[in-house]
Amino acid sequence: HIAIAGPLVNLGLFIIGIPLGVLLFMLTGAAEFAGQQHIDGSSIIWQAMVYDIVRWWLYANIGLGLFNMIPFGPLDGLKVKDWNSNVWLALFLVFLSPIPIYFLTGGWSAMTLVIWLSNLV
C-alpha cells in the first residue's frame, strides 16, 4: 500500500543518518562539541553545528515516522493499519522502540551509537 511509503522513507533516512553521522564525526571531530553553542564571542563553532545537524536529522526522522504511524485521521498510520494491522504494528514498534531503549539503558540513543562508532577509528 502506498501509505507505508512515507514512514519507510523516514526509517530509511534515519538508518542512513547513522553511518553518515559517523563519517561526518570522524572527518570533523564534531562529537567533541556536543552541547556547545554555535557561536562563541565572534567565532562560529561549525563542529557544534555539524553535531546538531546529525542529531536533529536522526530525531526528526524517527519522530516524524512515529507521529505518522499514529492510526488516526489523515495520518498514514490509519491507512496502513486498515491495510495490514501486523505491518502497522511492526512498523509502529520500530519507531516507538527508541523511547523504552533510552530509559531502560540509562540514556542510550542513536546519537550515542554514532558517537561510539565514530570514536572506534
Domain tally: 1
**What characterizes the major β-sheet?**
2 strands, antiparallel
- Uncertain regions spanning at least 5 consecutive residues: none
Give me the number of helical elements: 6
Structural class: mainly alpha
Integer average pLDDT: 95
Question: Strand percentage, roughly?
Answer: under 5%
Tell me the strand order in the biggest sheet.
1-2
Can you count the beta strands? Answer: 2
Instruction: Please give the radius of gyration in angstroms.
Output: 17 Å
Helix content: over 70%
Summarize the helix and strand pattern as letters: HEEHHHHH
- Shape by Cα distribution: elongated
Measured between the Cα atoms of the first and last residue, the distance is 41 Å
Protein described:
The chain has 121 residues and is mainly alpha-helical. The chain has one domain. The protein has 6 helices and 2 strands. Strands 1-2 form a two-stranded antiparallel ribbon. The longest helix has 24 residues. It is elongated. The N and C termini lie far apart (41 Å). The model has no long low-confidence stretch (mean pLDDT 95).
SSE topology:
Layout: H1 5-28, E1 39-40, E2 43-44, H2 46-68, H3 76-83, H4 85-96, H5 98-104, H6 110-120
Helix pairs in contact: 1-2, 1-6, 3-4
Features:
121 residues; mainly alpha; 2 strands; 3% strand
Concise synopsis of the structure shown:
With 121 residues, this protein is mostly helical.
